[in-house]
Amino acid sequence: MLLPHTVTPVPPGSDGEPAVTVGGRTLTRTELIGAATAVAERLNGLGVRGPVAVWAEPTLATVIAIVGGLRAGVPVVPVPPDSGSAEIAHVLTDSGAQAWLGVTPEDPHGLPAVPVREHARGWHALPEPPARATALIMYTSGTTGAPKGVPIRREAIAACIDGLADAWAWTANDTLVHGLPLFHVHGLVLGVLGPLRVGSPLVHTGRPTPEAYAAAVRDHGGTMYFGVPTVWSRIARDPESAAALRDVRLLISGSAPLPAPVFERIRELAGHEIVERYGMTETLITVSARADGERRPGWVGLPITGVESRIIGESGEEAPHDGESIGALQIRGPMVGTQYLGRPEATAESWVGEGWFDTGDVAVIDAGGFHRIVGRASTDLIKTGGFRVGAGEIEAALLGHADVREAAVVGLPDEDLGQRLVAFVVSDGAHDPAAAAALTEFVGEVLSKHKRPREIRFVDDLPRNPMGKVQKKQLLAD
Ligand code: MCA
Ligand code: AMP
C-alpha cells in the first residue's frame, strides 16, 4: 500500500499501468513505488527525520523525491526552481531543512544532498506515519515580509483529494493533464498527489501551453485538465487548441478568478463549461462547482465534503446567504491547516478560533450555497498568472538596491495575467528603460523570477496620506 493517508492502494491489476508522465517520459505505478521506496529507505538509513528540500523542477526525479519523502514520513519542502538567493536562504532556514533530496541549486547553502536515482528500487514495507504528521511545508506570500511556511498534514491532503474526487467524479478511469509548477498546492497536491491517490495517470506537459494541452488529448487520451485562468485565457485565444479539448470530460480552473468572457469563449470553442474551484495554500481546496452540477461564470461553487464556510459582515456578525451581502470569507474543514510555521502571531491573526480560518478574501454566498469571490480584503496580496505575491516582499527587495529610495508595488488589471506587477519607484539613479530592466533583474536575483515587476514607473514621490502611508488606491487609479 502506497501512503494510505495520501494515496490509496494500487487498484488491482494496475501495477504496470502508467502512473506519471513528465516531459514525455513515463513511470508505471510499480516503478514509481519502487523508486520512491528506495529514496525512503535511504532517508531512513541516513537517519534523516527533519524536513528535506526538493528543487521542484517539473521532472520525474522531483515526483520520485517528493513521494519518497512522504513514504519516509519526512516533511518535504518544495523550493521554486526560479528562486533567487534571499528566497532560497529564507525557505531553508525557516523550514529547518536538513538536506536536499535530489537535484541541488547552484548554491546548496551548505546542506548535504541525498541522491534520487530513477532506476533504484526498494521494496521494504514502511510503517505508515501518523495521519496528523506533516507531509509538506509550502511557502506562501503575505502582504508584508518574507513568505510564511504552511505545514500540510497527510490527513488534510487525503480529505482534500477525496472531496474533489467526489465533486468532480474523478476516478482511476481519468487521465489528468496539466503543466503547472510543482511547488504549489495546485500543481503538486491536486496535480500529482491527486492522481496518485485516485489512481488516474498524470501527464505533466512541462509548461501549460495551449499546444501541449491539445497534444495530450491525442497522445495520452487526457480526460481531465487543470489550469490557472491565464492558461484558459491563452487557450481561449487559440481556437484550434481549444477545439482539440472538445471530447475530454472536464476542464477545471483555479488559483485566481476566471474571467466570465474566458468561460464563455471556451464554451463556444470547446463546448465545455469550465468547472471553477477555490482554495488557498493554508486551506487546500475547499469550494468547487460539481461535475454533475451548475457551473456559473464568476462563481466558484459549493463547499466540498466536510467544509463549512461563513461570511462575516462589517459589524462582526455573520452576513446572510442571500447572494448579495458581502463579508470576510472564513472556512473550516478537515483539509484546513492549523498554523504558520513558527509564527504564533500571524497564526492567531488568521486562525480565529474553533478551527475557522480567515481567508482574507471577500465573498458572497447565495441561498443555494454557491460562493462568489468578490476580491481580496488587502490590495497588497497580488495574484499574477495564478502566483500569489506580496507587495511588501517586492518593495523590500527593491529597497535593497542602492539607487532605490522608495518603492510601492501594486497589481494592475491585466487581460492575460489577471493582475500585472507594477512598481512605482523613487530612484537616485537613471530613469530610463535600462535602469528599469536592471531593477527588474535585481528583484529576480533576490526573490523568484515570477516575482519580477512587469513594469517599473519612476516617480518623483509616492502619494501619501497625512500619516505618511502610501495611498495605493491612487496608484491603482493611474
Ligand atoms: C516574466 N517574464 C519577464 C518578466 N516576467 N521578463 C522580464 N520582466 C519580467 N518582469 C518572462 C518570462 O520569464 C517568460 O520568459 C516570458 O516573459 C513570459 O512570461 P509569462 O507571461 O509569465 O508566461 P509564462 O512563463 O508562460 O507563465 C505563465 C504561466 C505561469 C504558465 C501561467 O504564470 C504559471 O505557471 N502559473 C501557475 C501558478 C500556479 O500554479 N499557482 C498556483 C498557486 P521565457 O518564455 O523566456 O521563459 S495557487 C494554489 O496552489 C491554490 C491552493 C489554488 O487555489 O490553486
Ligand atoms: P494561494 O495560497 O497561492 O493558493 O492563493 C490563494 C488565493 O488565491 C485565495 O486567497 C484567493 O484570493 C485566490 N484564489 C484561488 N482560487 C480562486 C478562484 N477560483 N477565484 C478567485 N480567487 C481565487
Overview of this protein structure:
The chain has 478 residues and is α/β, with parallel strands linked by helices. It is 30% helix and 26% strand. The protein has 13 helices and 25 strands. It has helices at residues 29-46, 60-72, 85-95, 154-168, 185-198, 210-220, 229-236, 239-244, 260-270, 344-350, 391-399, 433-446, 472-476, and strands at residues 18-22, 25-28, 52-55, 76-79, 99-101, 113-114, 134-140, 148-153, 176-178, 202-204, 224-227, 250-253, 275-280, 284-288, 302-303, 308-312, 327-332, 351-353, 356-365, 371-376, 381-384, 387-390, 404-414, 418-427, 455-458. The chain has a nine-stranded mixed sheet, with helices on both faces. Strands 16, 17, 18, 19 and 20 form a five-stranded antiparallel sheet that branches. The longest helix is centred in the first third of the chain and has 18 residues, at 29-46. The protein is globular and about 65 Å long. The N and C termini lie far apart (57 Å). The model is unreliable at 1-5 (pLDDT under 50). Bound molecules: methylmalonyl-coenzyme A and adenosine monophosphate (AMP). Residues 180-181, 184-187, 208, 228, 230-231, 254-255, 279-281, 385-387, 440, 449, 452-454 line the site of methylmalonyl-coenzyme A (MCA). Methylmalonyl-coenzyme A (MCA) binds at residues 180-181, 184-187, 208, 228, 230-231, 254-255, 279-281, 385-387, 440, 449, 452-454.
